[in-house]
Amino acid sequence: MPGEKQTAVKYYVGVDVGSASVRAALVDGFGTVVAHAEQPIQVWEPQPDHYEQSSADIWAACCSVTKEVVRGVDPSQIRGLGFDATCSLVVVDKEFQLLAVNFEGQNHRNVIMWMDHRAASQVERINATQHRVLSYVGGAMSVEMQPPKLLWIKENLPELWEKVGYFFDLPDFLSWKATGVTARSLCTVVCKWTYTSDRGWDDSFWKMIGLEDLVKDKYEKIGNHILSPGEAVGKGLTAEAARDLGLPQGIAVAASLIDAHAGGLGVIGADVKGHNLPCENQPITSRVAMICGTSSCHMGVSETPIFVPGVWGPYFSAMVPGLWLNEGGQSATGKLIDHVVRGHVAFPELEAKAAASAHSIYTYLNSHLDLIKKSLPVGFLTVDLHVWPDFHGNRSPLTDLTLKGMVVGLTLSRGLDELALIYLATIQAIALGTRHILEAMQAAGHDITTLFLCGGLSKNPLFVQMHADITGKPVVLSKEVESVLVGAAILGACASGDFASIQEAMAKMGKIGRVVQPNHEHKRFYDKKYEVFLKLVEHQREYRSIMNSL
Fold first, then answer.
1. Could you give the domains of the chain?
2. Where in the numbering of this chain does the Carbohydrate kinase FGGY C-terminal domain appear (predicted)?
3. Which helix (H) or strand (E) holds 540?
4. pLDDT per residue as tens digits for the range 200-219
5. What is the pTM of this model?
6. Cα first-last separation, the chain
7. Residue 421's closest CA among 391, 478, 383, 451?
């Protein structure tokens, strides 16, 4: 009404650092993404299983995309900033200068990426200790966690080890760049570094694995000031960071989250009333958030600690305050689909036809499957074609990084039909892997009724439907496709004080878009596919046992 004083909209900035790009979003208090920007970042692969990045390159991209999303916005309306990132390891000296994590001495390459598997022998030795902290990571530590990477650096780059001032998980590096405060997030140190919310760091673990020097300085190098996700860090944005990011000095900066956990935060707490879902009027412990991009993570929460063999956790308050988190995962999902499709001999034909039809290659493949299915349901096309998807090892629930991918049912055919079929079988294998993880969680005590999907792969309707059909559970897609960015913005909203709690912000800012129901008429077919799926890994282990007897 004329003359009526209108309340200015409050905005929050979420910044997400993924494996290949940095994204930022301007999000309002209802969880609507008002502006969005993305910029690629560089990855180096100097040798097999070594993946490196540059924290300088990453921060420059953070600044670029943040400036873009806040352009033209009244600075007084921007209330808070939240970061999430991959759980990559950042190495700097005592003056915060970049240190090389490689044999070439390239200091700008100072980040060991989450998916780097160089520390395979170190993690094997760590797991052989059977130390009590391993019970909080499913009984066996992953090569993708930080202790084996630290041990690799000490053993392989001893001169670097002596120069190190700080080891940061990438999400914590970003909050340090923004505030000048070296505090760590409870999320990162609990999930990737063996910190526990009740006992803190366990001196005996670090001494047992040969990293006793971290204990001597009271853990200053890896963090002795721990904050809960969403808690305000220091005095907010520094003057230098404000100039870099194009934001007002002093606005609230939140203790950060790992990217998958931010995605979970963005979807798992959404109001589901009126959607006829089994999780309606049930606690959020009946939900699993699945964040599916380059890799996939399966986040389930519980009121009491549940120890799931082969599944990380339980981690207290690592995602939702007051609840225990279990985290299953698949190390290569989007990356695997790309690998299979782009490596096929018919890929140039696919690329040309997709471009001619002005569709993405995956939209075109989905349409092509509809053409060749005839009277069958699409999923039934793979009755004789089966994939075991662990081309980059198994994270959950088998925790075996030595497992390899398998394809059974190949022919001499080389055309587009065959490419479409192997694409379908790969998506089904990923969904069967999700079923394998969910069954392990349920066997240990979780009661899961509904999946909440977000991330790049959730935009693919075939990927979503296969997960519904193969798990037998409804799949909820959020209204905002960029749920990870919404999760990061929720952190900023909490740090600003505009919401009383993470839970309140989750309920207000997480919104449901669409529900995909499973086709229960296909249950028998996918039960049989699952039987074959489990047989594949049995056979792989059997033939490896035979060859190892040489």
1. 11-255 (3.30.420.40)
2. 289-495
3. helix 523-548
4. 999 999 999 999 999 988 99
5. 0.91
6. 85
7. 383
